[in-house]
Amino acid sequence: MNKRDLVQYFIVNKELNMSKGKTAAQVAHAATLSTLAMMSSDSPFQNRQADFVEWVQTGMKKIVLKGKAGELEKLEGDGYFSIHDSGLTEIKEGSLTVVALPPMEKFEAKEIVGHLTLLKN
User: Fold this and answer.
1) Pairing mode, if any, of strands 6-13 and 96-100?
2) Predicted confidence (pLDDT) per residue in 47-101, tens digit
3) Residue 37 burial by Cβ neighbours in a 10 Å radius (0-12, 13-18, 19+)
4) Least buried of 27, 38, 61, 81, by fewest C-beta within 10 Å?
5) What sign results for the dihedral spanned by CA atoms 83, 91, 71, 63?
């Protein structure tokens, strides 16, 4: 069997100018939410549960990208896992901070997020 390159992508809303700590917390929210959803028996991503299990068993590779609010909104509209802030610290309540995709092969994700760049700082 060929080794598959399964990755989970997180897209951070760069227009919010969140601090590093705030960004880390928001990505952690997205990771937790997406994991709980993928483990649920009524997950809308049931067809991806085998990918999820393989991804967990092979190291849970993650990549964090940055995008504009409109790009995150489009992904949210496609049904991916989205995080909206509660507005208790740095940003306005309801702001879309992060969208997480379910674990998938890199070539598949490239069609969805290939135009985005890495979040480096």
Assistant:
1) antiparallel
2) 888 899 999 999 999 999 999 999 999 999 888 999 999 999 999 999 999 999 9
3) middle
4) 61
5) negative
Write down the pLDDT at residue 1: 52
| Domain at 15, CATH number | 3.40.1490.10
Q: 6: closest CA among 112, 78, 106? A: 106
Give the structural domain span for 40.
6-118
pLDDT (average), residues 6-20: 97
| Type of residue found at 34 | S
Which tokens is 105 given? 């092969």
What's the mean per-residue pLDDT of the chain?
Answer: 93
Cβ atoms within 10 Å, residue 120:
6
Query: In a 3-state reduction of DSSP, which class is residue 79?
Result: coil
Q: Does residue 20 belong to any structural domain of this protein?
A: yes
